[in-house]
Inverse folding.
C-alpha cells in the first residue's frame, strides 16, 4: 500500500526567501503529482513528474523527482505572498487503478 | 473547455439522513474519481470509474456509501445513513482515461452532518 509523507506540514516564511517542501513515498509510484489548494477551493494541478530525474519549473516553483530515493521536492524561489496556499503531493500505484494517494499537505504562509 | 461540475456546493443534514452528490466530468473524459477530503487532511480516494465500470472501490465504505455512473458520463455518490464523521468535502475528478493522464478536480461539495 502506497503511503505518502510530506514535511513540513506547516511553514511560515518571509517574502523573498527560498524554501523546499519534501515528499517521501513508501513504495514504487508510477508518477508523482503536486497540487495547490487555496482555502475553500478545489485542487489545482501544478506538476506531473513521470520519471526519475524529472524536473519541472513554473515561475517561482520547481519540482523534482528521485525515484531511487522515493523522494520528490517542491522548491520555492524568492517567495511572494500569492504563493500562500496548501501544497499536496500525491502518488499512484499505477496500472488501471490510478486513483491518487495524497500526503497530508503543507500549509504555507508567506508574510510580507 | 468547461471543467468538472459538481452540485450541490454545500449540504447540511442531520445524522442518519441520506444525501446524494452529483458530478459531471469534463466532456470526453472516460475516467471519473470520487475523493473525500476531511478538514486538514489530503483527499482520500473513494471510488474510480472507467466509463460505467468500477475500477477501484476498495476504500469505499460500502455499508453506507454507494456510487454509480450508469451511462458513463455523469455520476452520483450517495450516503445512507450519514454519520457525523462523514462531514467532509467530496471532490469529483476526471481524466481522459486511466494511465498517464492528469486528473482535473471539480469545486467539491461541502457536507456537514449535525
Amino acid at each position: 500500500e502506497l503511503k505518502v509523507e510530506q514535511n513540513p506540514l506547516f511553514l511560515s516564511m518571509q517574502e523573498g526567501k527560498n524554501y523546499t517542501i519534501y515528499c517521501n513515498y513508501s513504495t514504487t509510484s508510477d508518477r508523482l503529482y503536486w497540487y495547490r489548494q487555496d482555502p475553500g477551493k478545489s485542487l489545482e494541478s501544478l506538476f506531473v513528474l513521470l520519471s526519475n530525474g524529472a524536473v519541472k519549473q513554473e515561475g517561482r516553483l520547481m519540482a523534482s523527482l528521485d525515484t531511487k530515493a522515493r523522494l520528490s521536492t517542491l522548491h520555492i524561489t524568492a517567495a511572494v505572498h500569492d504563493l500562500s496556499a496548501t501544497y499536496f503531493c500525491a502518488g499512484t500505484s499505477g496500472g488501471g487503478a490510478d486513483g491518487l494517494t495524497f500526503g497530508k499537505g503543507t500549509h504555507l504562509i508567506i508574510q510580507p | 473547455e468547461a471543467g468538472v461540475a459538481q452540485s450541490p456546493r454545500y449540504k447540511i443534514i442531520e445524522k442518519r439522513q441520506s444525501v446524494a452528490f452529483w458530478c459531471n466530468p469534463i466532456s470526453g473524459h472516460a475516467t471519473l474519481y470520487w475523493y473525500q477530503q476531511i478538514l486538514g487532511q489530503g483527499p482520500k480516494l473513494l471510488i474510480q470509474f472507467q466509463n460505467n465500470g468500477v475500477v477501484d472501490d476498495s476504500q469505499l465504505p460500502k455499508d453506507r456509501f454507494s456510487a454509480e455512473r450508469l451511462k458513463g458520463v455523469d455520476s452520483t455518490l450517495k450516503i445512507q445513513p450519514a454519520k457525523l464523521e462523514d462531514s467532509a468535502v467530496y471532490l469529483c475528478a476526471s481524466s481522459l482515461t486511466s494511465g498517464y493522464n492528469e486528473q482535473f478536480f471539480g469545486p467539491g461539495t461541502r457536507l456537514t452532518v449535525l
User: Anything to note?
Assistant: Chain A touches chain B through 24 residues (CB under 8 Å). The two ends of chain A are 41 Å apart (CA to CA). Chain A has a mean pLDDT of 92. The CA atoms of residues 18 and 77 of chain A lie 5 Å apart.
